[in-house]
Every structure is written in C-alpha cells, then in structure tokens.
Amino acid sequence: MYLFVYGTLKHNCVGHQLMGNATFICSTRTSRKYAMVDLGPFPGVVHDKHISLITGEIYNIEYGLLCKLDDYEGKWYFRSEVPMENGMTAQMYFLKDIPSSKKDKSFLIPSGIWEDKMDEKAKGTVENILCTKKNLSPGHQDTLAYEVHNNLYLNITNRCSARCTFCIRDMADGVYGYDLWLSREPTLEDMITHLRALDLKKYKEIVFTGFGEPTTRFSVLLSITAWLHEQGIKVRLDTNGHAALINPGTDVVGELINAGMDAVSVSLNAQNEELYDSLCKPVFAGSYQAMLSFARQCIAAGISTRLTVVKVPDVDIEACEKIAKDMGASFFAR
Ligand code: SF4
Q1: Ligand 1 centre and the CA of 82: distance in Å?
Q2: Interface pTM (ipTM) of the complex?
C-alpha cells in the first residue's frame, strides 16, 4: 500500500520516525490541485480547494503502520486515495476542516510545498497583519454606506492585505466628501439595520468597497449579499482578489456564488508579479497568482468579472488589458 506524505512525516522532518519501516519510493506531486495550509507546526491539505499541486514523498507502507498513522493524524484528518503526477496512486491525508482553534492562525502555502511556509517572524494572525490604525477627527461618525452615481457603496472594514503605493487611504480620509475611516468594524446587525432604513431598490448596484478589503470580513459580506440577493438587488464586490489567502480553507468563489454575488471588480494593478509586489506590497506571498486565480474562478463560475488597473508609471495598460481579455474579463483603467 502506498502513502503520500507532504508535511512532518517527510524525510528529515520532525515526525519522520513515525514512518518506521516504511520504504521510500520516490518524491513526486499530486496530479490534481489542492490547497496546502500552514497550521503552525504542521500543514494540512484541503481537498475541495484547488490552488496548487502538492509536493511530497511516496512510501510503501504496511496496513498496520498505516492504522497507527491514522491515530497520529487524529480527528482533524481523513485519508483518501489520490492520483499522482507520476501515474501512481497513493493514500493521502486531508483536513476535514480548518480547526476552530487555528482559524485565525492558518496561512495558505500557495506553492503546495511545506518547506515554503512563511517565515515565522513574518507571521501574525490575520487580524494583526491586516489591521490599519488611524486617529479619527473630533466628532467623527462612521460612514457605513454612501451613494455615488446611482450606486450604494458599503464600507465594512479598514483592514487590507495590501499596502498599495497609490492607495487613496494614504492621501485622503475618504471619497466624495465621505470620511471612510471606521471607529470600529460594523457588525452584520449594524449593516442590516442601516440598510433597512434605505430605499435599496433605487440603486443600480450595491457595491462592497471601502477603505479596506471587504473579504477580510467574509462571513459578514456573504450574509449581507444573501440578504440583498433575496430582495432581487444586484450586488458587486470590489476586491484585491486575495480572498483565498485571507480565508484559507474556504471555497471563496463557491461561497460568493451561493450567496448570490452578481459581479466582481478585481484589482489587477500590474502586468506581472514583480511589478505587482512592488506596487501593492501584499501581505501574503503568492498574492498576484492568487488574485488571477480568483478572477479566473469567478469567470468560470459565471460571475460578471472586471479587472482594473490604476494608471501609474510602469503599468503597461495594453498588457494588462490583454490579460483581462484573454481571461474573458472586462477591463477598466482609472
Ligand atoms: S487593495 Fe485597495 S484598499 Fe488595499 S491597499 Fe490597495 S488600494 Fe488600498
């Protein structure tokens, strides 16, 4: 029986002695994409999320030893047979779910290689990494929603997984005269109460945007979207496309579809990863690829998708437009 291991059971890793008399066969990768998540001292792989091929080692193992490893992996994991890139099939452990105690301490490893986990010093919880602090002006009142051009824009967070060099947050306190810094993040109840008092049917679209990345509040975003969708109101998400990195272990596009999201506008921002990293300074490694993957998945799922760029030096507008067109997205340069 073959077992494929990708984390601490690998050669030279802390749990390898548990492999006992199992015989090393080869190093290889899975032939299908999954999502590897760093849970601290060990990784997990999410079966139903398709980010990257997983790199690991195949061992020939006796059934009795496999049962002992099942006990070692414990209640968080299940085992399934999967095809490998080299044509073999092997048993592999998958996460049943991200454990609740790890939910805000888990990070996607976009390469699918356990050794590529983020430097410990660069880590923090999602809350710590993404928080933006701002001193509010005297008499400040939070703006939860504001009208522009027949749309209603929702402002649910000031946190973001990027630090774009052109971010308006570094130049102003808001847009169109609305101060968009928040004294605290509004709860779902705050938002619904606020929206109930408005004539929502008069807007062309209701748009999640704001002084931050809306998918840092994914469950609130989904609940509001579903509530609006039930009323037949068109909903759009303006996003940096990092949702899968911010919410590891979540099928973000599937959840958006289920909630009834009609459209997304994704910040492409650059024609290549190097420029993107220098312009957007993303918190998570692999953000450019994650953003492109998010856009592709939205298109495949039937969500109306637009890619946008900001006209700043070094951004090749034509090349960016080609990326959008090749993908099947519309394009907007501002
Ligand atoms: S993604 Fe948007 S909110 Fe976040 S830093 Fe960039 S421009 Fe600002």
Answers
A1: 39
A2: 0.98
